[in-house]
Amino acid sequence: MLNFLPASLLGLIAFVLLLLNCLFWVPILLALAVVKLLLPFTAARLRLDPLLVGIAERWIAFNSCWMALTQTAEWDVEGIAGLDRRGWYLVNCNHQSWADILVLQHLLTRRVPLLKFFLKQQLVWVPIMGLAWWALDFPFMRRHSEEAIKAHPELRGKDQEATRRACEKFSLIPTSVVNFCEGTRFTSAKHQRQRSPYRHLLKPKAGGIALALNVMGDKFRAILDVTIVYPGGAPDFWDFLCGRMRCVRVRVRTLPVPRHLATGDYASDPEIREAFQQWLRQIWQAKDEQIDHLLDLPAAGS
After folding, report:
1. In the predicted model, what is the mean pLDDT of residues 147-153?
2. pLDDT at residue 250 in the model
3. Residue 186 burial (CB < 10 Å; 0-12/13-18/19+)?
4. How far apart are CA 114 and CA 49, in angstroms?
5. What is this structure's pTM?
6. Which architecture, in CATH terms, is 73-296?
């Protein structure tokens, strides 16, 4: 453990290890991705996709190694036993920080199939990582605002088609599709602007999860409802690298797939849309209450 070092030096070491890890694995990912691009056949994908997944899992495993070297955080985790990496999952999680992604990867990699996130379109330009996400078939979404969709209704169809194409790719080999229903990271300013009815969450958006279930509902074994809480406050990325995350509490609930909703037409059927939103609001209310409970838990050793 390197926690005896000054936080800024610890952050620099963690960043260098993270960068070296990326520089080692990303070129290998890209080489295989180019081969896959040149051989756009299902048979080729079935051989190449597991290789890409294996590389990504090794990449994540090394991230876990440098986290163990530089982090002293208390990890309080429940609900990850008994998961199956051979089955498809839809992962639904609250979102507070970039650290959420590293926490999810650290806890769920090799317990479930590789996590694949829906990303904002502009993230494709992130140096190194944008290419890696492209190579791994992470879907890049434009996420048009409701105001833009109202002015140009055809944009909603484009978002849905992009999601549908991504989910069809995921159906070839076991995959865990991650959806942050809030659509953005939680902040107090966003919470107030939305007038969110939840104490610790932004309002959930049902469109993405509804379409994923519509396309892949027959594949998903279950929904993993993940709640992440940072009792000392959500760390930003630099704070995380510097080892300033003192405690993280994670609870995973395995929920059944709502088959009656998954087969409905969320975009065109108002009754299905209302039922889906009500189902998600119930999950979000339970998550909000769970966050209250997790924040009230005493610290380890107290």
Report:
1. 66
2. 97
3. buried
4. 11
5. 0.89
6. 3-Layer(aba) Sandwich (3.40)
